[in-house]
């Protein structure tokens, strides 16, 4: 009997999607994971009871391909040979043309906050994928966060912003906490202040409808502490560092697609 959804690759992204879908209430019996690495299979089996954990692809109505970019085309072929009806690839850079299987392919770029239901995923249809395939992909992914539809040509830039984005935010979290310690606070307190500030600021940004410049102005009293701190961030080139980081990640995504 074929499974509803097979995840191929139970690594960091595959597990974020798996954990997020289960937390959102998807029944474990509908899900399977194909993972080549035995210790990972053992860990997943223990952590996610009810989910079928296998070594190689099995027949599935739909498949999420979450192996490394250079293994995606082979994994796709193996899934189609096993009876997959449609594929959703989350690999950075690899185009749907390069995957080029006999079944429809949707390409997506999710991010790891999917694990806590707060991901954002952009999806794009390959040439043989229909609106119904995009609806299917959106249905799978909306359980773990916001889903947006883009042109496939935009996915490298999406990767630079939101696929890799959590790593930039975690770096900011580390730096803000380290700065608190430098200013004399105990680590645990600095972590609480830094992490909750990131969470609260993100919620305010998304929920208030105000733009970041407006919200930043509301924190910045004339001649006050924030203006003094912001001047140092600008002096350190933080804005330009973000521009360069996203451009470098976008370019790297394109390179992965050419490899
Ligand atoms: N980690 C992230 O934040 C994101 C990753 N991605 C994409 O997700 C994919 C996976 O990335 P990660 O999870 O970070 O890598 P990872 O290395 O943590 O996971 C890959 C997993 O696939 C397994 N694997 C390799 N070949 C396989 C095969 N033929 N069949 C079954 N399992 C196989 C590996 O043993 C490993 O557990 C990549 O293509 C990446 O571009 C996309 C968005 C975000
Ligand atoms: O670093 C990477 O290549 C993957 C794709 C986006 C996030 N992680």
From TrEMBL:
Pathway the protein acts in: Amino-acid biosynthesis; L-proline biosynthesis; L-proline from L-glutamate 5-semialdehyde: step 1/1
Which Enzyme Commission numbers does its entry carry? Answer: 1.5.1.2
Oxidoreductase among the record's keywords?
Answer: yes
Reactions catalysed according to its record: L-proline + NADP(+) = (S)-1-pyrroline-5-carboxylate + NADPH + 2 H(+); L-proline + NAD(+) = (S)-1-pyrroline-5-carboxylate + NADH + 2 H(+)
For this UniProt entry, the molecular function terms from Gene Ontology, in alphabetical order, are: pyrroline-5-carboxylate reductase activity
UniProt keyword list: Amino-acid biosynthesis, Cytoplasm, NADP, Oxidoreductase, Proline biosynthesis
Biological function: Catalyzes the reduction of 1-pyrroline-5-carboxylate (PCA) to L-proline.
**What protein am I looking at?**
Pyrroline-5-carboxylate reductase
Q: Its gene?
A: proC
């Amino acid at each position: 009997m074929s499974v509803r959804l097979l995840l191929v690759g139970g690594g960091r992204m595959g597990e974020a999607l798996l954990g997020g879908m289960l937390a959102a209430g998807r029944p474990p019996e509908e899900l399977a994971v194909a993972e080549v690495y035995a210790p990972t299979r053992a860990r997943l089996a223990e952590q996610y009871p009810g989910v079928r954990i296998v070594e190689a692809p099995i027949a599935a109505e739909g498949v999420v391909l979450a192996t490394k970019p250079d293994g995606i085309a082979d994994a796709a072929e193996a899934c189609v040979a096993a009876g997959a009806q449609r594929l959703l690839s989350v690999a950075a850079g690899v185009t749907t043309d390069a995957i080029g299987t006999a079944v429809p392919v949707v390409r997506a770029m999710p991010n790891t906050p999917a694990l806590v239901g707060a991901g954002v995923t952009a999806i794009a249809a390959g040439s043989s994928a229909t609106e119904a395939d995009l609806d299917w992909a959106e249905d799978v992914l909306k359980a773990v966060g916001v889903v947006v539809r883009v042109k496939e040509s935009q996915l490298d830039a999406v990767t630079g912003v939101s696929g890799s984005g959590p790593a930039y935010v975690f770096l900011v979290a580390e730096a803000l906490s380290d700065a608190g310690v430098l200013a004399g606070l105990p680590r645990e307190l600095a972590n609480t202040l830094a992490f909750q500030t990131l969470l609260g600021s993100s919620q305010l940004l998304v929920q208030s409808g105000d733009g970041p410049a407006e919200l930043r102005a509301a924190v910045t009293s004339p001649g006050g502490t924030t203006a003094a701190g912001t001047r140092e961030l600008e002096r350190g080139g933080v804005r330009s560092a973000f521009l360069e980081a996203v451009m470098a990640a976008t370019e790297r995504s394109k390179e992965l697609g050419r490899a």
